[in-house]
């Protein structure tokens, strides 16, 4: 009964007009982000970050979470295009390949509608897992000491580096660089950096302005066309499609929900695992497309659980959520649920509302996504850059724009070096919290570093981080990682 009361409180908060509009707007912005090629959810969230100080905490978080969840709906539209989708931009390439094969048979819009249903079912499954696990995880988090919290953050940081594309050493180096950047502004220095770097110019520079520069180069080389140019708006899934898809959707929901809970796990891992499962089950093409689609949507919901209960982000998008909470004076983790129950449960309810809106839009507008996909990236590159400059200037003035430009240049250089930048942002966001817990743990242990290995839970978390590194270094897994994982945000 207590849980029902909490859910009722969440619905009451989420259906208030400001929060409801934020949930709907965020979900639609995320959907548009997924449909428009070369835009990622982390890019849109970075663009919205300067609005956070001006909005109510609940409104701001619901807006950002809506983008985080909504982009995965629009990503499935890649199946309508001729070129295979890149992981991290449209989703997982096996999913796109299956969808493109069905689109060539003239069934693209039907599969998009079926994907919207699969995504909604999977999102509901992921949310149910969050509701079930949030109270016990919050209770567990209160039993963590400073040493355990520090070790958990180490595991999350290592996990994010292990699940990024490119060199493992490079990804770990990005995480360390992020930690080092938090020290800027600690001592007197040049005027440009005396107030610290700031998460807003860094995030917008790396993931918005930097992405524009990178993608303009890609747009000059790539040409994307619709596979089936005829009008397909009236297509709907058949009963045969539903019979083939429902077991795959259930399998994908369960698998994706579990994978999303892993430290550093991504929706790419969930979808690729589901695709492999469907192949081993000798499923048909519809199941092969819908299983990974369900896994992606379930995972994107449950990736929020470590942030909401433990305060540990596992991706660039969840790191931006932690940054938004920090800007609003909130502490991500167990104190959010116990100290701000209306905000916590309102956020959960808003996610369900956003997914319901996306289901309705996905069913009604599936036939027009292919037209949006053919829009040239150059048409909205300049407006995105102007929004970047305006948002950063609004939040930090002229010097913040200069910092954003430096961050954009850094992002471009790292891209050329084939090094992912998501671990850098995670390190930057986690840095102050890691330092605080490290200092507190050493103070309580009279400066003895052995405290991190003498406490069983802390030792277990550090051993898990070490084991993850060793597993990734295995030749077979390393080769698979290079093929599958990309920076997703």
TrEMBL record:
Name the UniProt record assigns to this protein: Tripartite tricarboxylate transporter permease
Domain spans labelled DUF112: 20-426
TM ranges: 46-71, 114-134, 154-180, 192-214, 298-323, 343-369, 381-414, 457-474
Tagged with keyword Membrane: yes
Coiled-coil blocks: none
Alphabetized InterPro entries for the sequence: DUF112_TM
Pfam families: TctA
Keyword set, alphabetical order: Membrane, Transmembrane, Transmembrane helix
